[in-house]
Structures are given as C-alpha cells and as structure tokens.
Amino acid sequence: MITSKVKSCINWENLITLFAITIPLGRGLFNSAFILLIGYWIYRVYKGGIVFGKSEIIFLIIVSSYYLYSIVSLLYTDNIEYGLDKIYSQSYILLFPLFFLSFKKEMGEKTYLKAFKGFLLSLTLVSVLSIGKQLYGVLLGKYGLEALTQNNISTSVVDNYFLGLSLLISFCVITYTYIKLFKPHIKLFGLNALETIVISILTITLVLLNSRNLIFLSAFSICVLFFAKSVLIKRPFFFIKIFFAMTAAICINYWANPYFGGKMKEVVNYSQENSKDKYWGGMRQSIWDCTVKVIKTDPVIGVGVGDQKDQLELCYKVYMHNRLLVTDNNFNAHNIFLQVFLEIGILGVMMFLLSFAYMIRAAILSNNMYYVIFVGVFILAGLTESYFERNLTMVFFSFYGCLSFFSKSNLGRP
C-alpha cells in the first residue's frame, strides 16, 4: 500500500515542481532533482511511452541548434578543457526541451501554476533566511549596513550571485502581476494575505540586492501590464496611479538607499569623469569594446566556446583594462547576444534568434502570455548581463523557458 502511494506521487508534474523548488536552493539540490528527472525519463522511455513525431523533432533541432553548434565549435577551439566545461554546464539547453517534449501531453496551465507556486515559496524562504541572517549580524554589530546589499545577501545562506537572484525575483514579481491583472480567478495560495506577504518579501529583497537594471525592468514591465489592462477596461487612471507609484518608489529608493543612489551616480557619471576604469558603467564600455574587437577576428564562426574567456582576457591585457583583470573574476561579455556572437559567430546568433522566434510564434498563436513574459524579461535583462555564463541563470532559462512554453503552446501550429 505504501509502495503504491509512493508510485502515485512520482509523476512528471510533481518532479518538475520539485525541481522548481530546488532552483533557488543551490546547485547541489537542483542537480539532485535533475538526476531524478533523468531517471524518470529513462524509465518512461524503457516503458515505451515516449514517441516523437516530425514536429517534435523539428522543434528540438531548432531550439537547441545554437547549443549543438557550440559543441561543433570545439573542433576549432584551443582551450578544450574550458570548452567542455561550458558545454556540460549548458547541456540543460538540450535536455530540458527533450524532457518537456516527452511529457507534453502531461503539461498544462495547472502544472505551470503548481511549479510557479513552489518556486515562489522557495525563493521567499531563501530571501527571508538571507535577510534574517545578515540583519542579525548587523544588530549584533558584526557587520555594517553593507551586509544587507548585493552578494552579501545573496550568498549568505545559498551561494547565489546577486544578479542571478535578482533576475529570478524580477521574473516572479512580473509574472505574479500578470496573473493578478489578467487571471484574477487564479488564487495561488488561497489566502490573499499570504500572497501579499510573499510578494512584499521578494520586492524588499530585490531592492536590497540593488540591481539597478532589474529594478527598472520590473517597474517598467509592471507599468506596461497595467497600461495594457487600463486599455482593456478603458480606465486610464488605472495606469496613471501605478506609474506615479513606481516613479515615487524609485525616487525614494534613490534618496533613502545610498547603495542604490551610488549605483545610479555611476550611470550619470558626475563631474565629467570619463575614465573607463573609474565607474562600473565605464567598465562595461571596456568589456563591450573588447568583445567587439574579438568578434571582428572571427565574425562568421566565432572564436569557439573554449576560447571566449582567453580571448577576452588577452584583449583586456593588450588595451590595459587593468580592473578587468582582477584575480578570480571572469568578466564575460555582459550581453547574451554578444556572448553568443563571441563564441559561435553570426551563424550562432542566427540560430539563437531563430530558436526564440520559432517559440514566440508558437506561443502567440496559442495565446501563451506566460512564455511571452518570460522571454521579454530574460532578453531585456540579458542586454547587460551574460546569463548563460552562470549556472543558476542557465538552469532558470532552460527550465522556465520550457515550462512556460509547454504550459499552453501547441507545436502543431507553427
């Protein structure tokens, strides 16, 4: 009897919900959950319940084509060891589409919402524990207030890079806003008070993480959603209220939060101090400048997945960007498109864009706003960060891209 109950709990929906829960909890846990997914997939293949048609095979080839081409780039890369490491860490790009295709008939909005709820609660738990631990240290006098910012928070309990954690939180807040505005019948936790507490904690955490780009992206996306809703209900004041509320919140954060204010001053670049090594904004200019220079050496096929880091570091040395040569720091291209261009050239970028275009078209035809929101958030956030270079955000992209796409999209239509 116990065995039958255990078997009934082991299904695709529960396993991907478990995986969603483990994403914010660290690499060890989500890798363990991923092994369970692999084992379940192998078991279902053995039982003969997985069959791919022509449309599924075409889909798999298109969405993973740029990853497959990255593997081919090992043929002309020199640093094979680094290249193999990147290929291994990015293997989710191929495996998650394979898994979700295998169980597409068991997917739906119900499955998406169940996984999203688990993800929300897990992210909230990590946020509470992280802030609580750092706040306790501040109250005891062990730390200064800087302990409540950026990596000091994101790595205090789980070793998550602050920009990656900010991306996860931003996505959750924006998706939750969409659900409340356009699907008001959906009650994620049953109690409105619990939903308010969860979103409030995540919002506070996002502010403390001080990612200016993701704070602005969240505010902008929320305003866009409210604008769309105000057009549908023909109540312009509905949008005007949230616009002024978001503007006021950002202004208050600028004046009251010296860390956020300091990062904003970096963008403004006061006193006409244009040294590229003085401000982080200038450092990005140096990074992008070197990235473009390296791209020009192999614009068609790229330098190869293994040589991307070495070629960038060589450029930093040649042009004496000394702050980009900090020990144990890997300053990547800080843009997902430039990173792909650097690795596998214009051919890879075309494959990368094709994979998005193919899935976006299918999502639009299926009226799947979950995927459209996910892609919009990831692409806009990725204009200033190379999220494929970090394990947390790579897993998030691969998993949630498939989860949101297969929650509604019909492969037979594209």
Automatic annotation (TrEMBL):
Topology versus the membrane: Multi-pass membrane protein
GO MF term set: ligase activity
Cross-referenced Pfam families: Wzy_C (PF04932)
GO cellular component terms given for this protein: membrane
This protein's UniProt keywords: Ligase, Membrane, Transmembrane, Transmembrane helix
TM spans (from-to): 15-43, 55-75, 87-103, 115-136, 161-179, 191-209, 215-232, 239-256, 336-358, 370-388
O-antigen ligase-related domain sequence ranges: 198-353
The keyword Transmembrane is assigned to this record: yes
Recorded superkingdom: Bacteria
Main location: membrane
UniProt key word Amino-acid biosynthesis: no
UniProt-annotated location(s): Membrane
Protein name: O-antigen ligase
Native organism: Saonia flava
